[in-house]
Q: What sequence folds into this?
């Protein structure tokens, strides 16, 4: 069992990582319960619940908790206030109290929605993240960002609400779709480039084995990514400084997703293009040497193929980029690598430079 900690002023919380952890989740959960916790609510969707719900229900009943289950529809399009309202309705009907516990079992969509419901119900109750996709295990379950989409934009409604703990069972990835896995590995590439050259090497040397879901390698990668995210969040919970480096690859990535109405790319795939773009910009500015540029771009492609981009309008992507909610006073914020394992934060790059790189990427000339 590997254990990490997110250390915050308000409260710190553990991240447990271990294959098969769900079988004995009661031991871990018992250490995280409030003394007066009598009830638990498990939020998931049908698919994930059928795969892993029973193990968790077993663990909760061994703890003597009265447990109810709320299943929500599967998919990003259900990440809405309406779904949150339905969850809250169930919490009221089940008479869930301040000391009780909510558990989010699923991918990032479940974690974000259920986390948000737990942030606003009775002004906040405890919740646990039990992520079952690679993206959720290395990224979304840690850091306390919860929320839902609005029809005018992604993640526009939300709250910081840190979980009481994160329980990661990498063996749940055995049932994960191959495209979800490849897409999430782009986020792992992100962590390697921003902070961990050893992680980058590991991904580079073992890309095939990782794509074949080698258990122990996946566990290693998850641990290293969580180590980085936990550290960054501990030092900058609300993203006023260092946490912004986690947006490496996301300035272009988010714009690509928005320009294609969130239909063409998985999030990580768009980030893959964003990583290629940011590395290219860094190289054009003579920040990054050619060998590192090649290694970064080759690694992204090793976890491809990425969806085609040749019929996407460069202007539209540039416009979406200008609307990025993380822009500061209208200026784009770019995270740029100066070598593998290290980045700088750059505000106010010449828009022509960015535009040209964007054009090249979209035409597949990078
Ligand atoms: N809060 C944050 O800090 C943060 C960070 C990154 C992303 N996100 C959010 O995360 C969401 C994306 O998360 P995601 O990529 O996990 O997508 P997802 O939650 O939609 O999961 C992808 C698919 O995999 C299925 N699934 C989940 N676990 C499975 C398993 N073990 N086996 C088989 N199928 C499984 C899901 O039911 C779904 O169909 C987005 O809404 C994004 O905004 C949040
Ligand atoms: Zn991301």
A:
């Amino acid at each position: 069992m590997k254990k990490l900690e997110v250390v915050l002023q308000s409260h710190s919380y553990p991240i447990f990582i271990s294959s098969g952890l769900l079988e004995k989740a009661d031991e871990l959960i018992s250490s995280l319960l409030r003394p007066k916790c009598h009830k638990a609510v498990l939020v998931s969707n049908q698919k994930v619940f059928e795969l892993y719900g029973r193990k968790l229900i077993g663990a909760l009943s061994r703890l003597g908790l009265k447990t109810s289950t709320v299943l929500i529809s599967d998919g990003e399009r259900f990440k809405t206030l309406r779904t949150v309202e339905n969850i809250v309705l169930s919490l009221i009907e089940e008479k869930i109290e301040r000391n009780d516990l909510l558990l989010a079992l699923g991918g990032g969509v479940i974690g974000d929605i259920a986390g948000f419901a737990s942030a606003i119900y009775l002004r906040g109750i405890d919740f646990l993240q039990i992520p079952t996709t690679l993206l959720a295990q290395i990224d979304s379950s840690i850091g306390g960002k919860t929320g839902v989409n609005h029809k005018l934009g992604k993640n526009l409604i939300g709250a910081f609400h840190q979980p009481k703990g994160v329980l990661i069972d990498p063996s749940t990835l055995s049932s994960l779709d191959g495209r979800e896995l490849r897409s999430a590995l782009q986020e792992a590439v992100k962590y390697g480039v921003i902070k961990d050259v050893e992680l980058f090497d590991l991904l580079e040397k073992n890309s095939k084995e990782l794509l074949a879901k080698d258990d122990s390698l996946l566990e290693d990668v998850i641990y290293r990514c969580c180590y980085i995210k936990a550290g960054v969040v501990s030092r900058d919970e609300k993203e006023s400084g260092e946490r912004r480096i986690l947006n490496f690859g996301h300035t272009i990535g988010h714009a690509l997703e928005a320009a294609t109405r969130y239909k063409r790319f998985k999030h990580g795939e768009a980030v893959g293009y964003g990583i290629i773009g940011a590395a290219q910009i860094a190289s054009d500015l003579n920040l990054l040497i050619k060998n590192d540029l090649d290694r970064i771009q080759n690694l992204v492609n090793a976890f491809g193929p990425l969806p085609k981009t040749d019929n996407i309008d460069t202007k539209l992507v540039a416009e979406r980029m200008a609307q990025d909610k993380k822009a500061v006073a209208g200026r784009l914020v770019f995270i740029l690598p100066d070598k593998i394992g290290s980045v700088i934060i750059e505000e106010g790059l010449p828009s022509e430079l960015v535009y040209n790189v964007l054009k090249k990427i979209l035409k597949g000339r990078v």
Q: What stands out?
A: The radius of gyration is 20 Å. The first strand starts at residue 2 and ends at 6. The mean pLDDT is 95.
